[in-house]
Amino acid sequence: MKVLVTGGAGYIGSHMVKLLVEKGHEVLTFDNLSNGHEWAVINRQLVVGDLLNYKQIEEVLLDFKPDVVMHFSAKVVVPESVEKPLLYYENNFYGTLNLLQAMKRAKVKYLIFSSTAAVYGIPERVPVKETDPTNPISPYGWSKLFSEQAIKDFGRAEGIKYGILRYFNVAGADPDGKIGQVSKNPTHLILRALKTAKGELPYIEVYGTDYPTHDGTGIRDYIHVMDLCQAHLDVLDYLMNGGESDVFNVGYGRGYSVLEVIETVKKVTGVDFKVVYADRRPGDLPQVVADATKLKTLVGWTPKYDDLEFIIKTAWNWEKNYTYKACL
C-alpha cells in the first residue's frame, strides 16, 4: 500500500512512518521541517514542502498516487495558539483544505486525520466520549474542530472514507530507541521533566495548583506514541474492510496528574529535580481522560504499552542517549 504522511518528520509522524515501513508499506513523507527533522524519516523518502502551497501538495499527490493520506501536519502548542490565533487557523485549517482539494484532484479515497481532545474544551464528564459536546477553549482546538468538519463534509460530498483520531496526551519514544521526541523549546510535560532531570533545564514548572482534582494539578490521559500509531493502522484496516467513516478517541481511559507524572519521572531517572509552581496557562484544561471504547470494540485496537512508567522509560532512554546537537 502507498501512504503519504504529512508531518512525517515530526514527533508522532516519524513514529508512524517507522511503523508503516516495518509493515512493508511504501511511504512518502511531506513536511516543511518547521518542527520536524529530516533524520527522523526512517526510510529517507521525504519531500520538503508546505501545505499552504497548494501546487506543492497537488504535484506530490498526482506524482506519488497514494492509496491513503495520513495527515499529521499541524501546529500544536495551546498557549501559542492563544497568542497567535490566525497562525493556527491558517496553518491547521487552511492547510487541511489545501490537502483535501489536492486529494480530490489525485482521486485519493482514504484519509486518517490527527485531531485532538482539545476539541471537547472543558468536558462535561470524564472520561470523554466521542458523542460529548465539542466546545474548544483555544484556537488550536477550534482549528482542529473546523478541520474535522471540513473532512466530514468533504467525505460525504466526494465519497472519501476518513478516520478522525482525537488524541489525548501522546508521550514516550520508539522502544527500539531509533527515534524519539526532539524539541528546541519543549512544551510537553514529560519531555520538560526529563530535560530537567538531565540538567538542561533548571526546574520544571507546574502551571496551576488550584484545579478541582485530587492534588490541585491538571489530569491527563497519557498514551504511548507507538500505541497511537497502531491505532491509525487499525482504523485504516477497519475502513478498507468496509467500516464507515467515524471519529475515534485514542487514549487509555486513565488519567495522571502533573505531580504524579513528575514523581514518576523522578523515580525512573533517579533524579530529585526542582519543581516550581506557577499560575494556570491560558487554554489549559482541568482534566481530560479518554473513553476509547469505540476504538477497542469497533476497530479492535489493543494497546501494548499502557503503563506510565514504561512510557517514561522509553522517553528517558531516548533522551539520555541522543545527541541533540548533531541533528537540531
TrEMBL record:
InterPro entries: Epimerase_deHydtase, NAD(P)-bd_dom_sf, UDP_G4E. Pathway: Carbohydrate metabolism; galactose metabolism. It catalyses: UDP-alpha-D-glucose = UDP-alpha-D-galactose. GO terms for molecular function: UDP-glucose 4-epimerase activity. Residues 3-251 form the NAD-dependent epimerase/dehydratase domain. Keywords: Carbohydrate metabolism, Isomerase, NAD. Its EC number is 5.1.3.2. Homodimer. PANTHER family: UDP-ARABINOSE 4-EPIMERASE 1, UDP-GLUCOSE 4-EPIMERASE. Belongs to the NAD(P)-dependent epimerase/dehydratase family. This is UDP-glucose 4-epimerase.
